[in-house]
Design a protein that fits this description.
By secondary structure, the protein is mainly α. It has helices spanning about 1-10, 30-55, 55-60, 65-85, 95-115, 120-130. The chain has one domain. The two termini are about 15 Å apart.
C-alpha cells in the first residue's frame, strides 16, 4: 500500500502535456501527438518507478525521505519531460488547450519544488491531462 502511495505521489508530475514545437513544423495529427506524448511519458514514468523500486523498503515508507527524493530526482525529471513534450507540435484544434495544461503543469511543478516535495499541486494538473486522453502522462 505504501508503495502505491509513493508511486502515485511521484507519478502525478507525469501529467505533462506539451506544445510549442517549432513554428515551421506542421502540427502533428491527434493520433501522432498522442503516440509521441505517450512514449515520452511512459519512458519518464518507468524511470521514476525504477528509482522507487530501488529504494530500501524502510525509505519507501518514510515521508521525509520520499519528499527528498521527489525534490532531488523527480522534480528535475518532470522538468526534463516537460521540456521534451514542449517540443511536440500539437494539433491546431487542441493547441490552446494543450498550452493551458502545460502552463498548469509548470505552475504545479514550481509549487511542488518550492513546497519541498508536497505533491498536492500536481493533482490538479494531472486531472487536466487525463481529460485530454493522455492517461500515460498521469498517474
Amino acid at each position: 500500500m505504501k508503495k502505491v502511495w509513493v508511486l502515485l505521489a511521484m507519478a502525478v508530475g507525469l501529467g505533462l502535456i506539451g506544445c510549442g514545437g517549432s513554428d515551421d513544423a506542421e502540427p502533428l495529427s491527434k493520433a501522432e501527438f498522442k503516440k509521441q506524448a505517450t512514449a515520452i511519458c511512459e519512458k519518464s514514468r518507468q524511470e521514476r518507478y525504477d528509482k522507487v523500486d530501488a529504494l530500501p523498503k524502510n525509505v519507501q515508507s518514510n515521508k521525509q525521505e520520499l519528499k527528498k527524493l521527489i525534490q532531488s530526482e523527480f522534480i528535475p525529471s518532470f522538468r526534463a519531460m516537460y521540456d521534451e513534450l514542449r517540443e511536440l507540435n500539437p494539433p491546431e484544434a487542441e493547441a490552446e488547450e494543450f498550452e493551458k495544461v502545460l502552463a498548469s503543469l509548470e505552475a504545479a511543478i514550481d509549487k511542488t519544488e518550492s513546497n519541498f516535495g508536497e505533491t498536492e499541486a500536481l493533482f490538479g494538473a494531472n486531472q487536466k491531462v487525463e481529460k485530454m486522453g493522455l492517461a500515460a502522462c498521469g498517474f
